[in-house]
């Protein structure tokens, strides 16, 4: 008896006609680069802030919700082939790929409606430090936020972690900056002591690997 097409294994049917995520009108997608090889899927993020996985074998696409960090930011958090953790903050990825940046002084990314879950490119804008300060004063959700220094959105604990990673030099500055949700220029200024110069690290405090530190940052998710 001859098998019908429906009798084929699902994996074969998906390979022949892989499921695709239906795009919205005028929606654009860009591939995510974690800096290391992913496991079974590649990942893409759209100008509308949507996330999808693409199976390397079958081409099947699947929408992902992402993980919510403390403070409301959405991130894509994946275990990579070498066992390390890859983290991309959706708002920063969308801004870097789909939102025009007028000057290098605009290191901050603001959500126009103060909703950190709304990462549509039309809701994001690059801003200077002064713009950010004005934005924060107008925020309808100021209560309950942890106290921070004037140097923007990192806590001293995070800066200490970042300085450890930068000093070791095992992980690229660009990757460190992305995982902390800041620009590479901001990470450079922290490394050179231009910012957060009062925060120091102990030379003998070296009992955590880079991967463990970055995993801890992902779990805490305190950047905003």
Structural notes for this entry:
There is one protein chain. The chain is 29% helix and 17% strand. The chain is α+β, with helices and mostly antiparallel strands and 224 residues long. It has a domain of 74 residues. The longest helix has 13 residues. The protein starts with 9 loop residues before the first helix and ends with a helix.
How can the largest sheet be summarized? 4 strands, antiparallel
- Head-to-tail CA distance between termini: 61 Å
> Counting H and I runs of at least 4 residues, what is the number of helices?
7
Mean pLDDT over the residues = 81
Helix content: 25-40%
Report Rg: 20 Å
Protein name: HNH endonuclease
Organism: Phaeodactylibacter luteus
Pfam families: HNH_3 (PF13392), NUMOD4 (PF07463)
InterPro entries: His-Me_finger_sf, HNH_nuc, NUMOD4
Summarize the structure.
The protein has 224 residues and is of the alpha+beta class.
List keywords for this structure.
about 220 residues, three-stranded antiparallel sheet, globular
Secondary structure topology:
Blueprint: H1 10-16, E1 29-31, E2 41-46, E3 51-55, E4 61-64, E5 67-68, E6 74-79, E7 85-89, H2 90-98, E8 108-111, E9 124-127, H3 129-138, H4 156-168, H5 173-180, H6 184-191, H7 210-220
Helix pairs in contact: 4-5, 5-6
């Amino acid at each position: 008896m001859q098998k019908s097409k429906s009798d084929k294994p699902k994996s074969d049917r998906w390979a022949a006609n892989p499921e695709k995520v239906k795009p919205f009108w005028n929606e654009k997608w860009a591939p995510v680069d974690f800096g290391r090889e992913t496991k079974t899927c590649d990942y893409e993020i759209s100008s509308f802030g949507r996330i999808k996985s693409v199976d390397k074998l079958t081409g099947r696409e699947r929408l992902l919700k992402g993980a919510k960090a403390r403070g409301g930011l959405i991130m894509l958090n994946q275990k990579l082939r070498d066992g390390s953790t890859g983290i991309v903050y959706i708002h920063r990825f969308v801004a870097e790929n789909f939102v025009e940046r007028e000057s290098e002084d605009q290191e901050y990314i603001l959500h126009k409606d103060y909703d950190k879950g709304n990462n549509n490119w039309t809701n994001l804008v690059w801003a200077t430090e002064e713009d950010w300060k004005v934005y924060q004063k107008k925020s309808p959700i100021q209560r309950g936020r942890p106290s921070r220094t004037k140097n923007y959105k990192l806590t001293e604990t995070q800066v200490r972690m970042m300085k450890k990673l930068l000093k070791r030099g095992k992980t690229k500055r660009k990757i460190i900056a992305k995982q902390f949700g800041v620009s590479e220029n901001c990470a450079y200024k922290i490394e050179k002591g231009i910012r957060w110069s009062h925060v120091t690290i102990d030379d003998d405090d070296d009992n955590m690997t880079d991967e463990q530190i970055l995993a801890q940052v992902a779990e805490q998710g305190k950047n905003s």
